[in-house]
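Why does residue order matter? Because the sequence determines the fold. Keep that principle in mind as you read this record.
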Amino acid sequence: MDFSTIVFILEMIGTVAFAVSGVMVARDCKMDIFGAVVLGCATAVGGGMIRDLLLGATPPMMFRKPVYVTVATIASVLTFLLEYCSPKLREVIGRNQERSDRILNIADSIGLAAFVVVGCRSAIEGGYGDNLFLCAFVGVLTGIGGGILRDVLAGQMPLIMRKRVYGLAAIIGSIVYCGLLRAGTEAIPAALSCIAITCLIRFLAIHYRWNLPSFH
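Structure:
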């Protein structure tokens, strides 16, 4: 399996994970199925759209390859139907807000890690491999862009600015990935290391309720 195939798989994982997180937010905001699909798709492809515009890749990949929007739409619809049509599941999740938040955070973490790699790789393939700051920045933006767009559309403060070291995990993951590549590490081990570290930081932050210092 070549690295381009692995990148595509990561994109699909991130797309589905972010679509699920978008629908979970839509559910908490009592949106209808249209709003849930819009929020799911915006979360799934928003970061990639911002990345492509920043790198001058127009029109963005989401329009050149509709598979991303298609997968995001299907994942959003299925998640909505699962939440809407399963009273028992809704009852279980509804009774435990902490469990609901955990599902959202896990989906967000997986999508974040996958898209950080994809974003860094896009900048490198765009000819900016010598600019470590740009590659890392694009990786972070790809990872957090969809979540920011989701939260703005939902009318709430973006998660990255309020808890669980969300942005910091993306920054560290992107630096690890770009740094390993610069040190001569093969692409696949570098990508796996980035994903592992990003998810580990997020999971530890969720479990131990780590937050950066903030105003009270």
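The chain has a mean pLDDT of 88.
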